[in-house]
Amino acid sequence: MQVTLMQGLLIGLFAIISGIDFWWEGFYIFRPMIVCTITGLILGNLTLGIVAAGLTELAFAGLTPVGGTQPPNPIMAGIMTVVLAYTTGKSPATAIGLALPFSILMQYIILFYYSAFSVLTKKLDTYAEKGETKRFTNLALLPTWIVGLTYGIIAFLCVYGAQGPMKSLVNAMPVWLSHGFEIAGSILPAVGFGLLLKSMLKARYVPYLLIGFTAACFIKFGNLMPVAIIGVALALIEYNRSKKDAENDKKLKTAMENSNGGDDEDGI
Amino acid sequence: MKMESKKSETPTRGKLTKHDVGMLGIRSIFNQSAMNYERMQADGWTLAMIPSLKKIYKDDKEGLANAMKSNLQFINTNNYAAPLLMGLEASLEENGEKRSTIDGLRIALFGPLAGIGDAITWFTILPIVAGITASFAKQGSVLGPLIFFLVYVAMFFARIPIARLGYTTGTKAISKIRENSAIVSHAASVLGCTVIGGLIATYVQITVKTKIPVTAGHTISIQTQFFDRIFPNILPLGYTFLLYWLLKKKNVSPVMLILVTFILAIALSWLGVL
Q1: What is the distance between the alpha carbons of residues B208 and A214, in angstroms, rounded to a whole number?
Q2: Is B273's Cβ below 8 Å from some Cβ in A?
Q3: A112-147: buried (b, 16+ CB within 10 Å) or exposed (e) per residue?
Q4: Does A130 touch chain B (CB under 8 A)?
Q5: Residue B96 near residue B62, CB atoms below 8 Å
Q6: Average pLDDT of A215-221?
Q7: What confidence score (pLDDT) does residue B238 get?
Q8: Is residue A184 less than 8 Å (CB to CB) from chain B?
Q9: A193 touches chain B (CB under 8 A)
């Protein structure tokens, strides 16, 4: 299948909107769940978009911009997964792997911008010192427009410009290679979950991880809701217990202080 | 020095309405508008605060300039915690607290708030919402993206009550945040870890194809007759833990692990193992 110029432009436009959304972390339309769906809609194959949305969203579940870090870019991953599946006829699972270089490219562009936008701080300081709110506003918003425009251009070039070479590249791939990409796509969520665990998992949370894992292995249900409910129950138990502990600690402390006051003469 | 002398006369400050504080919550979306490595969100943070500061300082141009300049100090917090802190700061500015008090509190609080905010939004809400909506999406149901979208639209508008909460609790909020942030993060981590356990079992797929010939015409499948009999999904769990260990203890970069995963998958596909 071919991406038309009109479709390429529409995807570029959507990349601008979702790019700004990612920059601001506003409505989360930058997550692959939405990006893939909209891209599928533009290409006239909504179902493909939605199926790819589920796969790509999970592959990127742990790749989050926490604490000012930049993960591989979810927008380019989402767009290119659907576009590559659409143009080459490969399964979305295979396409996730093929989309990855585009995602990493965008990641590095954003990292470059993080450094580059430091040059604006001096000028913003001067506007602040003079209380010039209008000029300050315009300049503080400039990075947003630059980032949005970059998304639009990159997305359009990747989608429309690169589709020919990508298609011949993919068609030249032997079966074991494209099967390898498909397998990688289905293992990829492990990287994301590993990253989530890196920030969350402490020794005392391992039991909960195991409970969730075991529950999901044996509860046969269409989605993760049962596991989420078990998680909420466990969290409530822990919340109440920690709260009580904290109160007891406080009482203990005041009691100790009181008794200390009395014993002061005996010295330490 | 001029600003010190000005402060002692403290011109009367304007008061924000409930609507103003709500708008501050909406404007908190600008928090990352000029994100950069020098002072992270500070420029966007100040941009979000401008209308509130303007209303509070009215004609006091110097006070406004001072407030803007002080807001331009390094800050990096969670984007849903930002409106809380903005509301809190607005109430302090309004009460004419000392500049050093306001700045000190903002700097002291953005870190803990980032921790609790990230624990709730990125490590708990996102995995749960993604896990549940992805199960719809994988079957091609439009419910997946639709529910996902609605959840995050609701999250966006939650910035309004969050900003109001910060504004109304004011200084009272500080001891509350200090006291409860550890407990709430703990509970969120319990929920998050449980769900991630479930996600590993559901969405990481590794199936070994290799069959070992025992006698002529009789083979043993490593997957169904070995791994699955130990425990279902034991390979995904093992591989995730391996990656976790490499990320945490060996400081391997995620991009590196993604590449290694691809090379491994392709090599094992070529060998016919996976």
Answers
A1: 21
A2: no
A3: ebbeebeebeeebeebbeebbbeebbebbbebbeeb
A4: yes
A5: no
A6: 88
A7: 94
A8: yes
A9: yes
Domain range annotation of chain B = 2-201, 207-271
| Mean pLDDT score, A96-106 | 90
For testing the chain B interface, which of A33, A117, A195 should be mutated: the one with the most B CBs within 10 Å? A33
Residue of B nearest to A228 (CA): B195
Say yes or no to pLDDT of B34 above 70: yes
In chain B, which residues have their Cβ closer than 8 Å to the Cβ of A214?
Answer: 197, 201
Confidence at residue A167, expressed as pLDDT on a 0 to 100 scale = 83
Confidence of residue A170 (pLDDT cuts 50, 70, 90): confident
* pLDDT at residue A147, as a whole number: 97
| List of long-range contacts for B147-154, beta carbons under 8 Å, 24+ apart | B148/A28, B148/A31, B148/A33, B148/A34, B148/A57, B149/A27, B149/A28, B149/A29, B149/A34, B151/B125, B152/A27, B152/A28, B152/A29, B152/A31, B153/A27
Nearest to B128 among A46, A199, A228 (CB): A228
**Is B33 close to A71, i.e. CB distance below 8 A?**
no
Look at residues B179, B178, B165 and name the one whose alpha carbon lies nearest to residue B88: B165
| B199 and B131 Cβ atoms separated by less than 8 Å | yes
* Nearest CB to A24 within list B29, B123, B192: B29
Q: Does residue A242 surpass a pLDDT of 80?
A: yes
Nearest to B107 by CA among B56, B45, B168, B22: B45
pLDDT tens sequence across B127-142: 999 999 998 999 999 9
With beta carbons under 8 A apart, name residues in chain A contacting B36: 114-118, 120-121, 143
> What DSSP designation does B11 have?
P
Mean pLDDT of A167-182: 87
